[in-house]
Amino acid sequence: MEKEFNNAITVETTVNAPLATVWDFYTKPEHIINWNAASDDWHSPAAENNLQAGGKFSYRMEAKDGSMGFDFWGIYDRVVPHETIEYTMGDDRKARVSFTAGDSGTQVITTFEAEQTHSPEMQQAGWQAILDNFRKYVEAR
């Protein structure tokens, strides 16, 4: 059942890889640290992921020059392997990631509630850049 989000933003990509591979690379910390950044001057030096309802995830995101950083974290509300991940971020915003196998690869769609600090356009661009980095990482393997 699809839940309605407040001030929803959606980003998506199609990854030229099988669904099982896309799922693993999206959810395993050893892969997350390699793609979870919106620009080349940022990185994720650490990631933890307890992928189950009630489980917590935490990704450390930092500028490579050490000038700033933060922990992006949340609690999983619902996990359907190879299909859907729903979670609540640390600031109580909701998000959903959907995975769908198709003829041209695996479609990944992320919908999330916008925060109030940055413009919706900036948030969409940042989340899209991270998803694009994910696609490039998977396709390079």
TrEMBL record:
Any matching Pfam family: AHSA1
Domain of life assignment: Bacteria
Domain Activator of Hsp90 ATPase homologue 1/2-like C-terminal, chain residue ranges per copy: 16-139
InterPro entries in alphabetical order: ASHA1/2-like_C, START-like_dom_sf
CDD domains on file: SRPBCC_CalC_Aha1-like_4
Family: Belongs to the AHA1 family.
Protein name: Polyketide cyclase
Origin species: Flavihumibacter stibioxidans
Lineage: Bacteria, Pseudomonadati, Bacteroidota, Chitinophagia, Chitinophagales
